[in-house]
Amino acid sequence: MSLVWITKASYLRDYQIEIEFNNNKKGIVDFKNHLEKKIFEPLKEIDNFKKFKINSWTIEWENGADFSPEFLLENLDFHSA
To answer: 76 with 28: CB under 8 angstroms?
Structure first.
């Protein structure tokens, strides 16, 4: 498997982010059911969830929380994009 990283990410609605990868795959990830761990607790507040940025390879929030690009790719809904 080649290395993948995020090239673009845009907040859509609720806990959904549209994500584009360096391999030209694009779709929507719904994070609603992926915020159980303690580091993700602040992201349950939608205003905090919206405050993400792209670091050198994935999306990251102000508190340091992130998801691996591989996880995001596996959870991508191609039909919604």
So the answer is: yes
Tokens of 4: 């993948």
Taking a C-beta distance cutoff of 8 angstroms, is the pair 33, 15 a contact?
no
Q: Quick one: tokens of 61?
A: 């929030």
| pLDDT tens digits, one per residue of 62-76 | 999 999 999 999 999
81 within domain boundaries: no
The domain of 46 spans: 6-74
Tally the domains of the chain. 1
Query: Can you read off the two tokens belonging to residue 76?
Result: 């991508």
Determine how β-strand 16-21 pairs with β-strand 52-54.
unpaired
| Neighbouring C-beta atoms of residue 6, cutoff 10 Å | 21
CA distances from 1 to 36, 55, 70, 76, 78 (A): 28, 21, 10, 17, 19
